[in-house]
Amino acid sequence: MAAWLSLLAVLYATLMPFDFGNQSVAQAWAHFTSLDVPQMRASARQQWVSNILMFVPLGLFWTAWLSGYVRGFLGRCLVGLFVVLLALATTAMVEFLQFWLPRREPSLLDMSGNFIGGVVGVLAWYGLSGPGRRWLATLRQGGLTALRRGLVIYGVAYVLFAWLPLDFIVSWQEWVGKLESNGWGLWRAPVSEDAGLRWWVLRSMIVVMTLPVGILVGWWMREHFAAVSGWGRFFLSVVAAMMFGVWVEIGQFLTISGIAEGGSALSRALGVLLGIGLFVWRGHFSPGRLRHRARPVVMLSLIPYLALMVLLNLGGKGFVLEAGEVSAKLESMRFLPFWYHYVVPEAAAIGSVLLHLMMYAPVGIMMWLWRWGPWGVTPLGGPWVAVALAMTLAVVMESGKLFMAGLRPDPTSVWIAAAAAWVGWQACGAVWWGLRGIRDYPAPERPRSVRPVTDFPGIEPPDPGFVRGGESGWTGGRWRV
Prior knowledge:
By secondary structure, the chain is mainly alpha-helical.
């Protein structure tokens, strides 16, 4: 299923908006066969890297699917060759069809990026599938090891998403151009569209998103600097936090489309420092204590969250009403998913998607906490309620843009909100699964809306002699099977 979905996603992204012209096949073929390899300019590298990333899932999932039907080295080679040829045929077909599409231009540069992405996907599966399976098995088991590996995955994904679309500077001229551009600032970059309170809100979101990285750093520091305590530990934490914040912003600076800001570096450092503090004081945050405060925290957070949503969605132009243009905006709206992401640069499209994911993920998180609070067990139902609430909130926010000057609704935000709420719910469940560890006590009778699962084990070992499923148990410091 994932293989076919990756192929459909590629076709959708490359053939949008499906508004084919009436040119002849002969014209298209003559144009296609006359294509030359263009020079790799700095402005084109962003799109080239995006094309590579777009085809990586296709190579990865098709190789994963077909590898299950073969055995031996020769079989894997044949599967890899087939997937590479599939990627080549797919990119050749879509680039040929783009001759009939508006705002599309066939390009051998795009084809090379797509082909490389397919090859990278194949190599990624054969190179990482073994370790990946072991990591996945660990994550499914839960426990502190799973929690730590989950934090590692989050940290790597955090840095990669911060540097998207990975269009790094490769020449001295590009370096000089970056220095002379408005894409960086000691505190705030001049090119940044966000100003005033909105800028501070977005920096606050960066702080929250960086907290898990700080927890991982605190965990690592406890293992490697256990002898350091007091002010020495605090100083070491500050240094580590600043190093991470500056490192991520240096990566932003070294990309053509990246915006590097001292304020963002400080926000990331503050997030890491707060995450380290959460790890140090983890003993004060037992679920048995927190679950009684889960619903009050959600209720107290609701009004500030809604206020921030209004500010981020409707406050871009200072809340200037434009009621007379409502009908014109409605007539010009395009309901094709990701249409407006198609007509803007790749960096702007990626930034918009990430921003909306961050805005609506708290709906899933708050819904999970609301259902978890009374009993302290994994909620059985609720993700689809969270999805419905997020979609409703997105409809309200996008409808409000009809009445605000300089803003236009984007129906795609509704679908991104649904995905974000689902991810937020699942993220809470994954964290809880990691905290539960390997103890699995029978729970008392509970309402039918929740599953009887474990109470919080913290970092305690399982009970001696505890038997899981009547076949295995804990004896003498190890599992017996």
